[in-house]
Amino acid sequence: MGLYPLEAGSFLKMASVKLQQRNYDRALEAANQALALDPENIDALNLKIMIGGLLGYEDTQQAIEEALHIDPESASTIANHGMQLLREGKVQQALERLKYALSLDPTNSLARYAMAQALKARFWPYRMFLKYGEFSARLSGQSSWAIIIGAYVVYRILAKIANEYEALAPFLYPIIILIASLFLLTWILEPLMNLYLLSNPYGRLLLDDDEKKMARYTGGSLGVALLSFALYFALSLETFLMLGVLGVACMIPLGTFLKPTKPKNRRQLTYFTVAVMLSGVVGILLNQEMLLFGAFFGIFIYQWIINGIMNKENARIFGS
What we know:
The protein is an all-alpha fold and 320 residues long. It folds into two domains: 8-126, Tetratricopeptide repeat domain (Serine Threonine Protein Phosphatase 5, Tetratricopeptide repeat); 139-155 and 186-313, no CATH class. The chain is 79% helix and 0% strand. α2 runs antiparallel to α3 (42-55), α5 runs antiparallel to α6 (91-104) and α12 (238-254) packs parallel to α14 (289-314). The model has no long low-confidence stretch (mean pLDDT 92).
């Protein structure tokens, strides 16, 4: 901005940079400065809508109306409107707006992303997942870690109490199962929903190659688990029971190992995933308890590793 300090375009560039850095407050400040110089700058308005919607600001709807008044046929503005409707739980209306945005510009990245989210949000669990994702995006890395660690500590405390006091167990186990299920769903729900989109001839066009790959791997792991459980109930062989449990557990790394954006992090998670799966399969086939224990312990450790990676890559930045 040094050469052109009073041009809206300079502030708009700064807003884009700060948005990529996840410094939402500074990005919004720069977008507002661009709008102060050029109130009809549609790109600055769309940045304001995007950030305001993510952070839950009340003036987001007003910004949407202003942008639509300036250019009612802007694919980006209509996509932003659809995303805001999705945040409000108006899934069908969001789908209609996003369909229109894509008819105007089939390559619009925001419209494609929002359409994929809206299709998956037709299922209630995924709508809750989206709300959690937006809540997490507003937190710093430290706050996200505090929630994760706090939930795990509560889980461990409740499990200990339930084991020591049998009278309380019937009341505590539902809470324990709920917390464990939420941990599991946090990682496997999105690839499972992407697997659903893969079954739709239009939905699969909205997924990138990495999302398709993780969805297929997750589906394969789930298929192995279901087949193994069926064989266990038919043959009563413990080998199939363990294979089924391993199949469910491996959905976590298989559904997430390509989520990081940095190649180094992806390689780290890929090697970890392969090692865990090999350890588990070999442990089951050779009846080696140490290898099997190593596989399940590895998946437990994997969750902490990927939480650390994703918090570092996606956590909100405060300050300058």
